[in-house]
Design brief:
With about 425 residues, this protein is an alpha/beta fold. It contains 17 helices and ten strands. Bound molecules: zinc ion (ZN). Zinc ion binds next to loops. It comes from Mycolicibacterium grossiae.
């Protein structure tokens, strides 16, 4: 290839001086007063990468997808100056404001005003500030084979309102990106803000120097996955404690949720919860599934698959008594999900009572109740929905304190190899 045919290096398109964010860019950034009662007093969250003087947060928008945006800029496919045209993008359903929004400690990992920035901060957007939504709310039909099966077996009945004849359930859904108020996050985890900032800086390989150089910036847009809400029935009913609320807080498990792996109960639990949510809506209540991107107990799939191999190759086979130990050997902890931030989304929705919580996790239950939300009945997965290979997981969890209305397996039971081998 001749020198003439060589494309210009992609970096040339963004050449010029490097825009450091580690020192204040000026005095044009509106202040953020976390937990203020109105959007105007709270102020907009501005993570723009183009006008440094406007930035009032650490990090940038879109969670982990911010890295793909950087690739698009590097490849010359995206203009750094692009501004979102928010015409017709406003939420299909208005959420809040709820009293919890005005409590700086009730919500520390979501921007409660994130869905309505185009309205709440219209003047600043018109004045040239790049203010982006961190929440989007829309409508959808969700169609799952398990729901069609429940209809065929007579457990669910289409009503033309919440569930259509073809098996589609009607939902309102919301996508939420993380927005962390660092002082509040530190309080949740019982550490100092300084220690939190330092760990975030060092454990990401120094990705965000402002964590340690800009103590004046208290809000961080972390490069992690967010969450998605699915509401069955009217979202306005979620904050009314007199309307029966059926809810599941589900942590992502791509292997089961999407690809149907039978080593765990994630998808059966999720579809069971959706069935319960539809039934609840048909009873005059409302249903909620809050889905968090915390793959493999927030350890990620590589760690998860390493653990599967370690479980199935260990002496004596895959047993419940070694279930948590095998994870800890590989990952250093049994679980990295830390449910401390999870209730934020429930408070964003104004929830005060969950009448039926579809979950066996004691960690989720403790976090929800500890945050001041009442929980009525705990609904566990029916035994006939548990795949045979997932018996190891269920036995280990119930023995460790997860909720079960049935017997808790004893030490002898936990030693029995119940999981399939790798070659089976
Ligand atoms: Zn799973």
């Amino acid at each position: 290839m001749s020198a003439d045919a060589t494309p210009a290096p992609a970096v040339a398109r963004t050449a010029g001086h490097i825009r450091l964010t580690s020192h204040t860019g000026g005095l044009d950034a509106p202040p953020i007063v976390w937990g203020a009662a109105t959007a105007a007093e709270r102020g907009p969250v501005i993570g723009t990468t183009t006008t440094r003087a406007h930035r009032n947060v650490i990090g940038t928008h879109s969670g982990s997808y911010g890295v793909y945006r950087a690739l698009a800029v590097a490849a010359g496919a995206l203009s750094r100056q692009h501004r979102a045209d928010l015409t017709n993008t406003s939420p299909t359903d208005l959420i809040g404001p709820h009293p919890q929004w005005a409590d700086p400690d009730a919500i520390v990992s979501i921007d409660p005003w994130g869905a309505t920035v185009a309205d709440a901060f219209g003047d600043q957007i018109a004045a040239g500030y790049d203010i982006r939504p961190t929440i989007a709310v829309t409508k959808a039909h969700v169609i799952l084979p398990e729901i069609a099966d429940a209809i065929a077996r007579g457990r669910l009945r289409p009503d033309g309102r919440f569930l259509l004849d073809g098996g589609a359930a009607l939902v309102t859904k919301a996508a939420i990106e993380p927005v962390w108020y660092l002082p509040g996050v530190a309080r949740r985890f019982g550490c100092t803000e300084t220690d939190l900032r330092r760990a975030l800086f060092e454990e990401t390989g120094g990705m965000y120097p402002e964590l340690v150089t800009r103590s004046d910036l208290e809000v961080f847009l972390p490069p992690i996955g967010g969450q998605t809400l699915y509401v069955f029935g009217s979202p306005a009913d979620l904050s009314n404690p007199d309307v029966e609320l059926t809810a599941r807080v589900h942590d992502e498990c791509n292997g089961s949720d999407v690809f149907g792996s039978d080593i765990c109960t994630c998808r059966p639990y999720l579809t069971h919860a959706i069935e319960e949510c539809i039934l609840g809506a048909q009873r005059g209540g409302v249903g909620l599934v809050a889905y968090s991107r915390k793959e493999g107990r927030a350890l990620g799939e590589v760690t998860k698959f390493l653990v599967y191999n370690a479980r199935k190759r260990q002496l004596g086979g895959d047993t419940a008594d070694q279930y948590f130990a095998r994870t800890e050997c590989v990952a250093g902890v049994q679980d990295m999900r830390f449910q401390e931030l999870m209730p934020d989304v429930l408070h964003w929705l104004g929830i005060r009572t969950i009448h039926r919580l579809v979950s066996m996790s004691n960690m989720k239950y403790d976090a929800i109740v500890g945050s001041g939300i009442d929980v009525g009945v705990r609904v566990n997965i029916p035994d006939d929905l548990i795949p045979a290979d997932a018996r190891v997981e269920i036995d280990a969890k119930t023995a460790a304190g997860y909720f079960t209305p049935g017997p808790v397996p004893d030490a002898d039971e936990l030693k029995k190899a119940k999981g399939r081998g790798l070659d089976a």
